[in-house]
């Protein structure tokens, strides 16, 4: 049976202390120093990934760096750690390697990592995009939002996931605002989307201000810090948080019962998926980036499917078709770690202020 590998890492030092109780009394500074020089950790296997066409198993390997360390340490230090973890997965028999969380973000988004391994590598971002788009459009319908008249804000728009989400959703919404830090890159992306879709596009470097006017939000910044807070969100809006760690503050769950926040990129696995490494998700549910790795292994398509910053529309559509072929599907809706029932969504819709989804006057790309 063929095997895929998947790389993970702790979100923070508290995550490490939770998994290793003997380290709970160590200070974060000491833990981070220990983790910086620690070897990769073999975390275990997964099994029962079975479609009508094939069956595969997986191995999980952790690199001992937190999200913040991956952003702040010298790039070469981080890449060496990730490559070392990838080689551990190779030795465990993996024929393809998926990059989880921040291991797919650092540097050139997997290209250098792939060049230093003997097996192909994928970030999984193509399926992440496909599921985020599907989830956002479905959630809009459930909240009585007509996408064709709604204002969509994409936070982290110049990143690989944000850019392709914006491109693929642009034809289906009434108004689009791209948000990121680099204004020059925003203007360039806005011009491209306008030429591609015929839609006019706004740009902004202020996410908190922008989302106050948006009925639909897709956020995927790659930041280690919270980006959106309870007071930022428009009543009755849908927010698809694709980021890991999450962009939306956990306090939104308590303070904003009138907003539907969903976790993007969650997929049900066909067969009888079993793994002790569950990432806090329900049984049989995985992140889309991992699901893409599984699908490529099931398809015996051992190639670097999604690498780098530029994801093609054709890639997204192709992996979406392969997901359907092998029986992978969107795993309903989850919000802040909890499954959302239809009754819960109806209650959110009920308590939200009636904002409507009026199509705003289109303006040319500018700061907003």
Automatic annotation (TrEMBL):
Superkingdom per UniProt: Bacteria
Matches recorded under Pfam families: Shikimate_DH (PF01488)
SUPFAM superfamilies associated with the record: NAD(P)-binding Rossmann-fold domains
Domain Quinate/shikimate 5-dehydrogenase/glutamyl-tRNA reductase: 148-253
UniProt protein name: Shikimate dehydrogenase
């Amino acid at each position: 049976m063929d095997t895929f590998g998947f790389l993970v890492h702790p979100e923070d030092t508290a995550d490490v202390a939770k998994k290793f109780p003997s380290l709970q009394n160590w200070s974060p500074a000491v833990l981070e120093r220990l983790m910086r020089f620690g070897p990769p950790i073999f975390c275990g296997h997964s099994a029962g990934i079975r479609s009508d066409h094939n069956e595969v198993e997986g191995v999980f390997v952790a690199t001992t760096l937190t999200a913040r360390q991956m952003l702040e340490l010298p790039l070469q230090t981080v890449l060496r750690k990730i490559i070392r973890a990838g080689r551990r997965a190779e030795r465990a028999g993996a024929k393809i390697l998926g990059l989880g969380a921040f291991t797919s973000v650092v540097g050139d988004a997997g290209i250098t990592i792939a060049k230093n391994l003997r097996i192909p590598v994928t970030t999984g971002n193509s399926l992440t995009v496909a599921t985020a788009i599907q989830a956002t459009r479905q959630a809009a319908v459930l909240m009585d939002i007509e996408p064709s008249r709604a204002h969509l804000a994409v936070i982290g728009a110049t990143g690989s996931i944000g850019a392709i989400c914006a491109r693929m959703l642009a034809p289906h919404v009434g108004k689009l605002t791209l948000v990121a830090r680099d204004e020059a890159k925003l203007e360039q992306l806005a011009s491209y989307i306008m030429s591609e879709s015929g839609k006019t596009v706004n740009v902004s470097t202020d996410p908190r201000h922008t989302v106050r006017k948006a009925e639909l939000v897709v956020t995927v910044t790659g930041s280690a810090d919270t980006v959106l807070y309870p007071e930022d969100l428009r009543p009755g809006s849908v927010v698809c948080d694709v980021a890991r760690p999450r962009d939306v503050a956990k306090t939104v769950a308590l303070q904003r019962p009138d907003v539907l926040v969903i976790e993007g990129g969650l997929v049900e696995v066909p067969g009888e998926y079993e793994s002790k490494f569950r990432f806090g998700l329900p049984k049989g549910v995985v992140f889309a980036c991992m699901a893409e790795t599984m699908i490529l292994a099931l398809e015996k398509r051992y190639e670097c499917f999604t690498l780098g910053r530029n994801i093609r529309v054709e890639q997204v559509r192709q992996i979406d078709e392969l997901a359907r072929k092998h029986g992978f599907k969107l795993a309903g809706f989850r919000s802040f770690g909890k499954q959302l029932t239809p009754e819960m969504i109806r209650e959110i819709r009920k308590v939200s202020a009636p904002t409507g989804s009026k199509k705003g006057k289109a303006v040319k790309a500018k700061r907003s």
